[in-house]
Design brief:
The structure holds 2 protein chains of 2 kinds. Chain A is α/β, with parallel strands linked by helices. Chain A has 3 helices and 9 strands. Chain A is 19% helix and 28% strand. In chain A, a hairpin with a 6-residue loop joins strand 4 and strand 5. Chain A starts with a helix and ends in an 8-residue tail after the last strand. By secondary structure, chain B is α/β, with parallel strands linked by helices. Chain B is 32% helix and 9% strand. Chain B is built from 6 helices and 4 strands. The longest helix of chain B has 16 residues. Chain B is elongated, with a radius of gyration of 23 Å. Classes of the chains: A alpha/beta, B alpha/beta. At the A-B interface, loops of A face helix 4 of B.
Chain lengths: 165, 193
């Protein structure tokens, strides 16, 4: 399937389609996310049955601040499609797609871990890569850069560049 | 039957040893007396005195069983020292153990993530005394290029470190030099641990 044909096929139902560098991106709003995913998965001509990954980006100062990206692949037609959802700064929540694509489980946990975006309906939404007691969401652009303090067994040791001899 | 003893015999009994020379009295040594000379003089007598401490330290230093705590690319260099090209078994440290309970040297090879830190400390606690730690590479020593939220800024914030090996990653020779410096440290340890 050519990229333009794919874009035209999607445009009938999901109008906000962008084709750039040979990739098709569809922007949907948060309420229409599950419906759009169900459509592109179940429509026989699209049949995007494989979720390659879920990622997030952070754009502080812009509206919407967070973007979620769902990269989809069709095993039958061998074409790809990306769905994007913008989330506002004050309400970083999105519906979980884990019931629809089970592979999204750990992807959504990772996004929650690093960006603090909450996925409603996720079966087990807790941190996945960082320690359980971590405070903050380190991939947000507003977080401080540099090393973090080591807190261990009652000891408190700042990173190397902030140590005093 | 006269059977003269061969000229150079490494170990002789007291009877075969050369007769004691007459004591020359107090003389100033003409040159520096090295450890080797002193040792040779002792061996001439056929008796070697030492302390239990130095024998134990010598034995410990020459049979170090490392625990390979490979965390990143440094682990590749650490594995190389056990291979035939570098051959750390020359220094008695080739028996890499998978279990901390059988090891007495932890080579922290690579960056320690915040989530790995409690695991590393637990493994360290499971090692029997006496135990030593080599911090291999700049990441393990001070965080290295990973000045970020994910990596512990120096493994010495979690466990006591004996030898720091710099480099990114250190060459196998550098790690072997670190092991040799550790030998020195173990040999000169002042008391039993």
């Amino acid at each position: 399937v050519r990229v333009d044909d794919l874009a035209e096929g999607v445009r009938a139902r999901l109008p906000d389609v962008v084709v750039a560098r040979g990739e098709v991106t569809v922007v949907v709003d948060r309420d229409g996310l599950l419906g759009a995913l169900a459509y592109v998965r179940d429509e026989p001509d699209l049949s995007l049955d494989s979720l390659s990954g879920v990622t997030a980006t952070d754009w502080p100062g812009r509206m919407p601040r967070y973007w979620l990206a769902y990269d989809l692949y069709s095993m039958a037609h061998r074409h790809r499609l990306r769905l994007k959802v913008g989330l506002s700064e004050g309400d970083p929540r999105a519906p979980s797609v884990t019931p629809m694509y089970p592979t999204a489980n750990w992807h959504e946990r990772e996004i929650f871990d690093f960006y603090g975006i909450v996925f409603d309906g996720h079966p087990d939404l807790r941190r996945i890569l960082l320690p359980d007691g971590w405070e903050g969401y380190p991939l947000r652009k507003t977080e401080d850069l540099g090393g973090v303090n080591t807190r261990y067994r009652g000891a408190f040791i700042p990173p190397v560049d902030r140590r005093t001899t | 039957v006269t059977d003269p003893a061969p000229k150079a015999v490494p170990f002789r009994t007291l009877a075969q040893a050369a007769p004691a020379k007459p004591d020359p009295g107090l003389v100033m040594p003409t040159g520096p007396v090295s450890d080797e000379d002193r040792l040779r003089a002792e061996l001439e007598k056929g008796i070697l005195f030492t302390t239990v401490q130095s024998v134990v330290n010598w034995a410990r230093a020459n049979a170090i069983w490392p625990l390979g705590f490979g965390l990143a690319c440094c682990a590749i260099e650490m594995m190389a020292i056990a291979g035939p090209r570098f051959d750390v078994s020359r220094f008695g440290a080739e028996v890499f153990r998978g279990s901390p309970r059988q090891a007495d040297l932890m080579i922290v090879a690579g960056r320690v993530s915040q989530k790995m830190a409690p695991v590393l400390r637990t493994v360290y606690d499971q090692m029997p005394e006496p135990k030593w730690v080599i911090s291999m590479g700049v990441c393990a020593s001070a965080g290295g290029m990973f000045t970020n939220y994910a990596v512990v800024q120096g493994v010495d914030t979690i466990v006591p470190v004996d030898i720091y090996v710099p480099g990114c990653p250190p060459k196998p020779e550098m790690l072997m030099y670190g092991i040799l410096r550790l030998h020195q440290k173990v040999r000169t340890e002042g008391h039993f641990k």
